[in-house]
Design goal:
7 helices, 223 residues, alpha/beta, 4-stranded antiparallel sheet
Length: 223
């Protein structure tokens, strides 16, 4: 296992208000980490620092080969190509099929060959159990199916880290369990670091992982 994320004495602020202080954290590939805390505690803000949407205010932070404390605007697209991001609200292009949503991302991230793109789209749709539904528009899919397409989109470029921000928040309990199981499988089979924010304790018991808790502006592992 190798370290893919390291924060040392990091302070995170938004609108000049400290959200998190003295963040010290080291995570390796192949780990599954739950991020927990009350609404407004700073879970989403912490995840946003990893993909360069919120700058770190102080300290040192490294994600893969990127020094977040010196991250330049032009480097952010390259950083994000190495990450997979799964949102609670899906954010699929509503006028394009599942297949075309994936093709759009491949083209946007520099893929050129039609055959290679089709092969990769088939691979990721099969991985998430959606190989027979690529032709459907998002509004023709259930919430769970849409989230599977979102996960397929997240893994297109073989990311070393997947960030999942409340990925089961809009789903029923059974579908949420299926999504958690899928993320765990990707973590195990592909050696991807997965950081998943959640409030769902049942899900955490069914699919154990490390637990990072946020409380009183501190982020610490919970036993």
């Amino acid at each position: 296992m190798s370290t893919v994320l390291k924060y040392e004495d990091v302070r995170i602020s938004q609108q000049e208000v400290d959200v998190l202080e003295e963040v010290n954290l080291e995570l390796a590939d192949g780990e599954f980490v739950y991020l927990v805390g009350k609404v407004g505690a700073g879970k989403s803000t912490f995840l946003k620092t990893i993909y360069g949407e919120v700058p770190i205010a102080d300290g040192r932070a490294k994600v893969l080969d990127f020094d977040l404390s010196r991250l330049k605007q032009r480097e952010i697209p390259r950083l994000r190509r190495k990450l997979g991001i799964v949102f609670q609200d899906f954010r699929l292009l509503t006028d394009r099929s599942a297949h075309d949503n994936l093709e759009f991302v491949l083209r946007a991230t520099g893929w050129k060959g039609k055959r290679e793109m089709e092969h990769r789209i088939d691979e990721v749709l099969t991985l998430v159990g959606m190989q027979h539904k690529g032709y459907k528009l998002p509004n023709e899919l259930s919430g769970g199916e849409q989230q599977r397409v979102v996960i397929a989109r997240a893994v297109l470029n073989h990311p070393q880290i997947i960030l999942a921000d409340e990925p089961t928040g809009n789903l029923d309990a059974e579908t949420g369990m299926q999504i958690a199981a899928l993320l765990h499988r990707i973590c195990e089979e592909q050696g991807t670091l997965v950081i998943m924010s959640t409030h769902n304790k049942q899900l955490m018991q069914a699919y154990p992982g490390k637990v990072l808790g946020i409380e009183n502006h501190r982020l610490e592992f919970r036993v």
